[in-house]
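Page header: ASSEMBLY MODEL / three components / 1187 residues total.
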Amino acid sequence: MTPRPQDDTQNDAIDVTADIPANPPQRALRLHRELDEVWRDLPGWRGFFTSVNHSTIGKRFMATAFVFFAIGGVLAMMIRAQLATRDGAFLDTELYNQIFTMHGSIMMFLFAIPMLEGLALWLLPKILGTRDMAYPRLSALGYFCYLFGGIVIVLSLLFGVAPNGGWFMYVPLTDKTYSPGINADVWLLGVTFVEISAMAAAIEITVTILRCRAAHMPLTRMPLMGWYLLGTAVMMLVGFPPLILGSILLEVQRAFDWPFFDVARGGSPLLWQHLFWLFGHPEVYIIFLPAAGALSTIIPILSRTTILGYGALVAAVIGLVFLSFGLWVHHMFTVGIPHMALSFFSAASALVAVPTAVQVFAWIGTMWEGRVQFRLPMLYIMGFFATFVMGGLTGVMLAMVPFNWQAHDTHFVVAHLHYVLIGGFVFPMLAAIAYWMPLICGRWRVRGLGEAAFWMIFIGFHGTFFIMHLTGLLGMRRRIAVYPENAEWEWLNLVSSGFGMVQAAGFALFAFDVVMQWMFGRRSWRNPWQAPTLEWAMPLPAPSYNFASLPGPRQPDAGALLALARGEGLLAGAPRGWRETLAVEPGSGKPQHVAVLATNTALPVATAAAIGSFFGLMLAGLYWLAPLGIIATMVVVWRWGALMGTERDHPPVQVAPDMALPLHWQVRTTLGQTGTMVLLVADATLYGSLLFGVGFLTVVAPGWPPPDSGVGTGWMLLLALAALALMAAGAIAARLAESRRAQAGGRVWTRIGLVLAGLALVMLVGLGWGLDDPTRHARDALRGAILGFAVVHGVIVLMLALRSHVDARRGRIGLERRGAVPAWQLFQVFWLGTTAASLAVVVAQEVLA
Amino acid sequence: MIWLARALAGPMLWGALFSAVYALHGAGCNLGWIDVRLGPADLHHAAMWAVWAAGLAVHVLLVRTMPAGQGRQRKIITAASWIGLVASAFTLFPVIATSTCF
Amino acid sequence: MSPLPKSCLYKPAALLAVPLLAACDGPLSTLTPAGPAAVQIARLWWAMLIGSGLITLLVMAMLWRALRHQSHDHPGPAAERRWIIGWGLGFSLTVLTVLLGFGLWIGERMIVRNDATPLVEARAGRWAWEFVQPGPGGAPVTTQGILYVPAGQPFDVAITSFDVIHSFWVPRLGGKMDAIPGHRNVHRLMAAEPGIYEGLCAEFCGLGHSFMNFRVIAYDPAGPLPAFTDAPEGRP
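Prediction written out in full:
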């Protein structure tokens, strides 16, 4: 039968007109045992180090994030204790500086981001109707990077060497001159280590949403949470690279004296601010979007209706994703930027309130059009509205340039940001936890505790922060430890501190409530909220494999629970003993192939340890030993490639009675291929940020251009051109290695490609000898950084070419199988493109100078 | 998936335009374009006005040509194209309203 | 600029919005403005506070109604028009456009221009301020911790830093401006009446940040010149 045109007025997530016949029913218990055997974690401590299952990793992320939230909360209470009186003698200034820096850094990097990653990892496959994330090992790698990095950061506080330059780490305060200790290095290296988990999550969330949905779930009907998390992930891909680049540059300045931010040698402290806020403002929306996704999911269900304005909400997400990258300068309104430039950012900061308003009114409208059931999650949602609306309005106030000049760096901003982050993230997350707890633990909550926790948090929060607006307007700036001459702030601070303790007790009660529910709650019945979404089409608590058979047009919603458990959906059971799931076409959701996912392995924790060894050696100042960490990482990463290939062709897999699909080894558009492209988007942003640095310093920094050093440029140009020619030839070799893969002589192209990559890399390293001393001037430091970027990518290309070559020799490449060759091609072209652009920039600099 | 690219065209153009005008503003102040007379205005303003106006024209073109398909797909493309147009108009109108380089 | 009240402007509005605001006075209060820039910003603040209060009440009323309203329909196109186009786009864009226009207009009137406004220098270093201002006969005088300016006329402050980033802020006179090494920012302020105005460093600058204060003494230009003394130990 031919599918009818989509009728988008329907609210099913799956296009029920695309008929896929049902599989014959089987005994649900037998299927469960078969699947659980394949999908479950190893028992005990081995399970902790080897699990890759998204439910396990997601829960672990959330639990760990909550522990860091508690630590950050204790620090907040210490800040409040210190500020409660004007001559607070509770902490000395050095310790106070460490504590407020750590409070901000922990809440942002070790609580908010990991919390949303955890929710996404845990929820996404369930709500999209699939069995796991696209890259289970990457989930686990991200978790261990987060855990190890987080532990180092927190330990630094115990040893009294925690970062003390404020969570935005402005240079020159954080450079070697003014922060000679290890404190700033802990932040730069620790946070960057943790951000590996953010990048990993961003990549796999993107790929999972685009490629791992239920059969025939078009993008236009995907549950809104999918759109919100897609927006979040894309923002993380583009938002985090500027911070990562900034951290690398600052650490290189601290370690090797390359003067990117040193005004005396052509750098500028403003470059740090731009890079930091280029990340820092989108970060706020990265945190808000998943919370808004949870609201868009929960509100219609608890209002017994459908969401109002699905299309408008998707458009609002698109608007937020873009606009939030045009606001960063509103954190820099007082640095001396001309009024017109400020006005652009002021206008953008005001405009970004429009998509937010669209969402708020869509949610209110949904409740208006439905019948609201006032259950516990709804209570937290009311907390969200009351708090977030005010936070949004003070945000609009701060977008106004003149008002910002007064309020900037005062407690008004502290109040505003807590209204936005606790209102816009924490309250929705508490609602989400209350809503999804039955699916997490299979139990119903203990009556009364949740309500009590809500009221304590709500009253405590507003008591703490509402009057803090006034404290700020009365002139109290951020980050002061005492205020002996300002008695008029004392009662305000005392009130804030008192309510702060109430709020902290409320959060403790919430945690207690969750533990009680987990341990003593009564068993929940299935689908307790009568939701249509697919995450409820499974037994409670969610099994390791999520769905015994995957949802398709005949199992479009939570009502198909029994049919799915009996194996009537697609790809029933685990007959081959593999973790299998469906990969679909991104737009329509048409099934394309069967992806075999990784099973329990200690490879991720080993990789995280190897990466950690590099960061640890850098932190210890053993810079010349640090390459050992990189080599260790390369050795471990090499092992990851094993899943990319297979030595023989496998027959297609019978997914449904009339539908046989190939396994992922035998298709070109694998999940890995999509993921490589997504990774390159982030990589290109990193590169773009570097070019922004070049442009910015050239225009803004004093002391440009540097005196001509007279180092020979002619032979360097020739060398660079030769390297580019080799890279281009390598790209051709990589293409031929694929197109001739089935022929007898095809294997030779992988070898040629390998040699070409090696030669090009040698030439790049040769260019390094000709550069001016990078410690001389920021221009030379930037050239060093650009060359370093090319060399790093050369090493990656070399490894991929080598992998392809080994694959070819082992027979993993054949008519149906391509091994690592497609990934190699992508990186080769990226290497060529960025290096060519770099050469053009350097030549332009020379010509213009 | 092509439809998503159609939807993103408008917002992406906003991103490019916003960056271009911001960069022009910075470069122009630095290179002293404000002192170069050009008809009724100076080179600095003229350059920003020209880029802004050209960008808005392309935005209008996108709003008219991008929407395709039906149902939600079309709705989302239309809305996103408008988001691009409104964003470019709203965030860059200061080029005609505020003073530059101070 | 008309003579300025010492207490809060628009007191009735303040009392209407939040009873707490009876106490807006303070040596560092932005709500006790003493110069045109601070006055205009305070005015903007009160306007925004009233608007925000009304919007908050409106949204809360809508929520209250939404909770009690019982409907069995799924939202249709009419509801979408009302909530998305009407409230989400129409209402918010209107409010924001008006506010932005107001904000830019005020900002335009505050910025530094190339005119003959007298210039003083503020140099920040951990953790004290050094000022250079025209003294007797117009000759520059360097002082520590106290800036002397004539009242009733605008002055520009050229702000620089010896070390890390600081920020020059006299809350009762106007907004703040950062002191950034390698950059020279110029900031226009004015004290309407002679008096003593407290100033401080607003950007976190390390251990001494809490104490990096200074004082602006606005003297009557018609009267005798002050003595241009330093603050005791460089600090007020």
